[in-house]
Automatic annotation (TrEMBL):
Record organism: Terribacillus halophilus
Domain Thiamine pyrophosphate enzyme N-terminal TPP-binding: 57-171
Domain Thiamine pyrophosphate enzyme central: 245-373
Name of this protein: Pyruvate oxidase
CDD domains on file: TPP_POX, TPP_PYR_POX
Signal peptide: none
Gene Ontology MF annotations: catalytic activity; magnesium ion binding; thiamine pyrophosphate binding
All copies of domain Thiamine pyrophosphate enzyme TPP-binding, residue ranges: 433-578
Key words of the record: Pyruvate, Thiamine pyrophosphate
UniProt family annotation: Belongs to the TPP enzyme family.
PANTHER family found in the cross-reference section: PYRUVATE DEHYDROGENASE [UBIQUINONE] (PTHR42981:SF2)
Superkingdom in the source lineage: Bacteria
């Protein structure tokens, strides 16, 4: 052993006595260990003799800023272009937990879901190059559903930028389309102010902020002095003009058949929305993102609209003489009637008139605007229109109950939703994946006080599990349930291990038909033969067990309720893998063109395979003729 090694071992092993240090310029060197005299290093903060802190690592400064902004966890994967920052996060783990995901896409989707559920900033972290590319899908989901998300993205060392270094990608270019704020730090001095601005922009624009940082900048010692900016966001109060309110009141008073289409922008205004609807005798249709705003079985609720919608919602909106859009960017213009007078309420003025030609735009918070309209408009006495569709919804719910209560195998999706309905808590959080499962969940699973999260406008498969992980972190005391198809779940199922690692007892229900069911139906409705939709057999219950969680395989109806009960009583993450019969997700209203194309598909399938799979003909004819 060399002298340097012996001295180093002694220094690291033996407690040092307190030394009286006299000057700032005197240095004492012992091997590689250097003590700057006059100062004592404490928790990576250098303190002078009078206790004043004058510098610390920039990464630690940023971690403290995130805590000041209210962030309590970060999703990501360590790596060579963020390891300096990871070391600073490690020191703050009691206040700012780092959640190590298995794929950056899952981390970004979880950050987006967290922001949608709570309204708070979702934070994710990745290395340069491949890690940054993996973030994009989740960031686009946040962009499309207007969720405030911050992505801190590593970059190659600052002295290697532009040299084609290993894993170097032009990140600012790549993130330009997805982000409302997209900047790369040129120096460590900029970072605290850039971070504050990034978070403010994410909140102000309900979108994605990206901060690109070469990892060496995190390690720089940052002067401890008052920053140029502060960690706060002043939310503006927007209110409609008096003239516009008067015009809206006039239209509402004249209308005999008003209808409300509400979205997630009315989530916090449940009471005001119902009071207003009852005041003007208007049925309510909810967008996909609006599911759960009011109870599904409430007498004024006609369910969802569009491809996943109900027959009464389709008919009611086509009979209406006034459309009120409340906190929604409903994307399916073809499902909205033409030439219907419309009023739109939205807290983002730029959205007003962007999805439908409105007569009057009322910028402002839906809670406040609805209260004002209730006070200013006449109370309607004519209940014929709303009662007509209340009766139709009673019939609709009766038909759904018949399908849900079947006690037979093979299992169909409505039966699963009924078993789930009987076992979920009133305040559970439901994270729904994308595909046929979206139809089954929105149509057959009635919500009362439960929260609901899904990838809305981007509609990306694979969002179910990350959303459940995020909901369990956001609300540790609530049930967190992911409902996935086998196609969606298999896209991000690797992060079931994340739930196991962090003791997050999420429950994942997988509707397993070994194929991409929605794609099969879409191919059929254009008259095409099915191709590329078969996925092969997969036992997701065994996968869950191999990850260290629990797994339940359900192949018979008799085992369905018992398996869900057992899984929900467990304090471990669990997968309930339910083998289902293939079942077409019939829309609430079938068009003549859809019927023709579906017939073409059946003929092609018969001549190419010799088999024919018919949908529920009674239900299909009923929805075609209505």
């Amino acid at each position: 052993m060399s002298l340097v090694q012996i001295v180093t071992w002694v220094v690291l092993s033996v407690p040092l006595p307190m030394i009286e240090l006299k000057t700032q310029t005197d240095f004492s060197c012992l091997g590689f260990f250097v003590v700057k005299k006059g100062y004592i290093q404490k928790e990576d903060k250098l303190e002078t003799g009078d206790g004043n802190v004058f510098e610390r690592r920039t990464g630690e400064v940023l971690a403290d800023q995130l805590i000041d902004w209210g962030a309590d966890h970060v999703y990501g994967i360590p790596g060579d272009s963020v390891n300096e920052f990871i070391s600073d996060l490690h020191k703050k783990e009691d206040e700012l937990q780092f959640i190590q995901v298995r794929h950056e896409e899952a981390g970004a989707l979880a950050a987006a879901a967290y922001a949608k559920l709570t309204g708070k900033l979702g934070v994710c972290l990745s290395i340069a190059g491949p890690g940054a590319v993996h973030l994009l899908n989740g960031l686009y989901d946040a962009r499309e559903d207007k969720a405030p998300v911050l992505a801190i993205v590593g970059q190659v060392p600052s002295n290697e930028l532009g040299t084609g270094a290993f894993q170097e990608v032009k990140l600012e270019q790549m993130f330009e389309d997805v982000a409302v704020f997209n900047e790369r730090a040129e120096s460590f001095e900029q970072l605290p102010d850039l971070l504050n601005q990034a978070i403010r922009e994410a909140y102000a624009n309900s979108g994605v902020s990206v901060l690109v940082v070469s990892d060496d900048l995190f390690a720089q010692k940052h002067p401890e002095k008052p920053g140029k900016t502060s960690a706060n966001y002043a939310k503006p109060r927007i209110a409609p003009a008096k003239q516009d309110l008067q015009e809206a009141v006039k239209l509402i008073n004249q209308a005999k058949k008003p209808i409300i289409l509400a979205g997630k922008g009315a989530k916090h205004a449940r009471t005001e929305l119902l009071t207003f609807a009852e005041h003007i005798e208007s049925p309510i249709i909810l967008s996909l993102l609006g599911k759960g705003i009011i109870p599904d079985h409430h007498s004024y609720n006609l369910g969802q609209h569009g491809q996943i919608g109900t027959t009464p919602s389709y008919e009611a909106i086509n009979e209406a003489d006034l459309l009120l859009l409340v906190g929604t960017s409903f994307p399916y213009r073809t499902f909205l009637p033409d030439n219907l007078p419309a009023i739109q309420i939205d807290n983002r003025p730029s959205t007003i008139g962007s999805i439908y030609p409105v007569e009057v735009g009322l910028p402002g918070d839906s809670k406040e605007v609805l209260q004002e309209l209730t006070e200013l408009t006449e109370e309607k006495q004519d209940t014929a229109y709303v009662e007509k569709y209340q009766e139709k919804m009673k019939d609709w719910h009766t038909q759904l109950q018949i399908q849900k209560k079947r006690e037979e195998s093979p299992i169909q999706p409505p039966q699963i939703m009924y078993a789930l309905e009987n076992n979920m808590d009133k305040d559970a959080v439901i994270s729904c994946d994308v595909g046929n499962v979206t139809v089954w969940t929105t149509r057959y699973l009635p919500l009362t006080q439960q929260d609901f999260v899904v990838s809305g406008r981007l509609a990306t498969m694979g969002c179910g599990l990350p959303g459940a992980i995020a909901s369990k972190l956001a609300y540790p005391d609530k049930q967190s349930i992911a409902i996935c198809g086998d196609g969606g779940f298999s896209m991000n199922m690797q992060d079931f291990v994340t739930a196991v690692k962090y003791d997050l007892p999420v429950k994942v229900i997988v509707l397993n038909n070994s194929q991409l069911g929605l794609i099969k139906f879409e191919q059929a409705t254009i008259g095409a033969s099915n191709y590329g939709i078969d996925m092969g057999e997969m036992n997701f219950a065994q996968f869950g067990q191999s990850c260290g969680g629990e797994g339940y395989r359900v192949e018979k109806f008799e085992d369905l309720e018992t398996s869900i009960k057992q899984a929900f009583l467990s304090d471990k993450p669990a997968i309930i893998d339910v083998v289902i019969e293939d079942m077409a997700p019939l829309p609430g209203k079938i068009s003549y063109q859809q019927a023709v194309k579906y017939t073409e598909y059946l003929i092609k399938e018969f001549f190419s395979t010799g088999k024919i799979e018919l949908p529920n003909m009674k239900e299909s004819v009923k929805r075609l003729l209505k």
